[in-house]
Write a structure and sequence with these properties.
Largest sheet: 8 strands, mixed
Radius of gyration: 16 Å
Order of helices and strands: EEHHHEEEHEHEEH
CATH architecture: 3-Layer(aba) Sandwich
CATH class: Alpha Beta
Shape: globular
Number of domains: 1
Number of helices: 6
């Protein structure tokens, strides 16, 4: 299935593979079976659409060396396993040492700290790479819960994001190390 799995106290983050991404699009039962988790009716989370899945599938199939620097499915493990979101990187570290993260959780699993826990695992993994000097994330100004995740992890508002209507948050390695 995946050679990249990150475990946290309540979650299992499973790196997206070609098989998982195909199953997600074509066979919901197989998708759940591969993840060993129930797939909720509310799947997929908002802002994670088929274009994002197909982009990730293309990366998985054409650039397998990027495994681990792409998307992860978030499976809650503190009860009956259920796939409840996605988190990931928008690629490995850039020339300036920057890595970008993103996340999305289905509605019935929000406001329980799962996005914070999953994103913290990505940040920790990123800063485990010596080239990474900062992690960034972009969101929309009206997504209060998303901004809360970033504040909880020590990110600060940097300013405008890469697209109109988007704002960027940043977390330098030094601040992360101070918080740990």
């Amino acid at each position: 299935m995946s050679n990249t799995v990150l475990d946290t106290p309540r979650l299992r983050l499973v790196g997206a593979t070609s098989a998982l991404l195909h199953a997600e699009g074509d066979d919901r039962a197989r998708f759940g079976a591969l993840l060993e988790a129930r797939v909720p009716e509310s799947w997929p989370p908002e802002l994670y659409d088929d274009d994002a899945r197909l982009w990730t599938l293309n990366v998985a199939e054409t650039e397998p060396y990027r495994a681990g620097w792409c998307m992860y499915y978030v499976v809650v493990t503190d009860a009956a396993p259920e796939v409840m979101g996605v988190v990931g990187y928008k690629g490995g570290p850039g020339d300036d040492g920057t890595v970008e993260v993103g996340y999305g959780i289905v509605p019935e699993h929000r406001r329980r700290g799962y996005a914070t826990e999953a994103t913290a695992a990505l940040v920790e993994r990123a800063f485990g790479h010596p080239r990474v000097t900062r992690v960034i994330a972009e969101t929309m100004p009206d997504l209060v819960a998303s901004i809360g995740v970033l504040h909880n992890l020590g990110f600060t508002l940097e300013g405008d994001g890469s697209e109109p209507g988007v704002i960027r948050f940043t977390l330098p390695r030094e601040r992360w190390n101070e918080r740990r």
